[in-house]
Design brief:
14 helices; 13% strand; 10 strands; Rossmann fold; single chain; five-stranded parallel β-sheet; alpha/beta
């Protein structure tokens, strides 16, 4: 099979991280100083699609590392309902690859007018969203030609990790981030196993993806990529919520995909999935942690739970690309979709 464009873009991520570390320092330092002087009472995120899944990860990161309550803003609350939210002194972070979606731009403008500290995490540095924000953290992913976002999603995470590291005084995160490019270049060794595992889902129609805590946003992103590239209906669920009804679907033969890690939430997902495996459920596990058997694609640890997430989704992207190819689909050009979606 010919290598699709998206596979090359996934492999560009080490260069993206290196560019961020080399070029984003001034912006990161300025934002950190502002937040140290005026810590926000809460954080709100603003995004659509893959960028919103990155915000789910960042929600758990801000809450666990800094204790800052973090919520998601629905752009339509302002653009369709006309509401002006009480956001004085809040930190509002808008994440967008293109920075051009009108509802995200207008909602960030409203937040700034309402007295919030506004930050744009964007791949297009001269975009409308960047012009509205007080602080801009460039993703520096370069052009992304494949419709499905990959390196821009991962770069949206790593662009903010230095801010979290500095505010939390977490030198371990900064060290792990600096080592991450070399680490990710070694992940190509896992590709044969990942492709082989993907083939078993060639004729699947549905897939349940479990992740909890830091991994939940990764589960959301993984489910979206299976929809986009593979035409497969996938649903992301918290392993904590799974037993509150959705596990009933296992009785219908739906396969289960669990995301593991060495943090408490990842271990909780692993334990839940292992219990289902004992009941004959079709199970695949992916992520760091103790080897749970032949159904587990174990990833080496990067040195920090947050950097582990970047490696985890990178490998899952390879899984989704391989599955699309096994199904005879072009992962670069999913039908009906465009690279930039304009919502109002």
């Amino acid at each position: 099979m010919n290598e699709p464009i998206i596979s090359a873009e996934i492999r560009e991520m080490p260069r993206v991280i290196r560019r961020q570390l080399a070029q984003n320092g001034v912006g990161v330092d300025a934002l950190v100083r502002e937040l140290q002087l005026r810590p926000p009472p809460f954080v709100a995120t603003l995004a659509r699609g893959s960028s919103d899944h990155a915000c789910t990860v960042l929600k758990y990161a801000f809450e666990t590392a800094l204790g800052w309550p973090t919520a998601t803003l629905g752009p339509s609350v302002h653009t369709l309902y006309g509401a002006v939210l009480k956001l004085e002194r809040a930190l509002v972070i808008a994440v967008s690859q293109s920075g051009s979606s009108p509802d995200v731009v207008e909602t960030l403008r409203m937040a700034r007018d309402a007295g919030a500290l506004t930050v744009a995490v964007v791949n297009v540095e001269d975009s409308a969203l960047a012009q509205v924000a007080e602080f801009v953290l460039p993703v520096r992913a370069g052009e992304e030609r494949s419709v499905a976002a990959t390196k821009s999603f991962m770069g949206s995470l790593t662009a903010l990790y230095p801010v979290i590291s500095a505010l939390a005084r977490d030198t371990g995160l900064q060290s792990a981030l600096e080592r991450l490019p070399n680490f990710m270049e070694g992940l190509t060794e896992l590709e044969p196993r990942v492709r082989a595992r993907a083939e078993r889902y060639r004729f699947a129609e549905h897939l349940l993806i479990l992740g909890r805590g830091l991994q939940f946003g990764i589960a959301q992103e993984a489910a979206l990529k299976l929809k986009e590239m593979c035409g497969l209906h996938a649903e992301a669920l918290s392993s904590a919520e799974f037993s509150h009804g959705p596990m009933r679907l296992l009785a219908e033969g739906l396969p289960l995909f669990g995301l593991t890690s060495t943090d408490p939430a990842g271990r909780s997902t692993l334990e839940a999935c292992q219990a289902f495996a004992g009941q004959g459920v079709d199970l695949t596990l992916l992520g760091a942690g103790p080897d749970a058997g032949p159904h587990h694609l174990v990833l080496p640890e990067t040195g920090h739970p947050l950097s582990d997430l970047v490696a985890l989704i990178s490998v899952f992207y390879t899984f989704a690309v391989s599955l699309a190819q096994h199904r005879g689909l072009d992962p670069d050009k999913p039908p009906l979709l465009n690279k930039v979606t304009q919502t109002r």
